[in-house]
Write a structure and sequence with these properties.
129 residues, Nuclear Transport Factor 2, Chain: A, five-stranded antiparallel β-sheet
Length: 129
């Protein structure tokens, strides 16, 4: 017996759903509300990154200066509907802080109809200073 799945990529409404989570993350970080930001991350993320390490990442980002704005440079979504349904999201932002810019890549997955962050990568020359 086989299974039938439908695959969709780069669906605009999926991107918009992911951007809502990113907006919550940046809002929490701007206000230093780290515990609220933690709630946006999947248990899969915390399987490999302890909560204290995530706080350290947030504090390192603060060394780049105050958040100014971000621009979505790239995005992708991948959705499977059927017996093994899943949706994956990737948002790649260029983020301007007052001292240094950064490239930030946020990967997410839908878990039981909720979207959670599974990977958060931040790249900046400001970390080398």
């Amino acid at each position: 017996m086989g299974c039938i799945n439908t695959v969709k990529t780069d669906v605009l409404s999926d991107k918009e759903d992911a951007e809502k989570i990113a907006e919550q993350l940046y809002s929490n970080l701007e206000k230093n509300e780290y515990q609220d930001a933690h709630k946006l991350f999947s248990s899969k993320f915390f399987d490999v990154t302890p909560p204290d390490s995530l706080n350290n990442i947030f504090q390192q980002i603060r060394t780049l200066g105050d958040y100014k704005h971000r621009t979505l440079a790239d995005w992708s979504t991948f959705s499977v509907t059927g017996s093994r349904s899943k949706t994956e999201y990737m948002l790649n932002y260029v983020v301007e802080y007052t001292l240094y810019p950064a490239q930030e890549i946020i990967r997410m997955e839908k878990e039981e109809d909720e979207i959670f962050i599974i990977s958060y990568e931040v790249y900046s020359d400001g970390f080398e200073q």
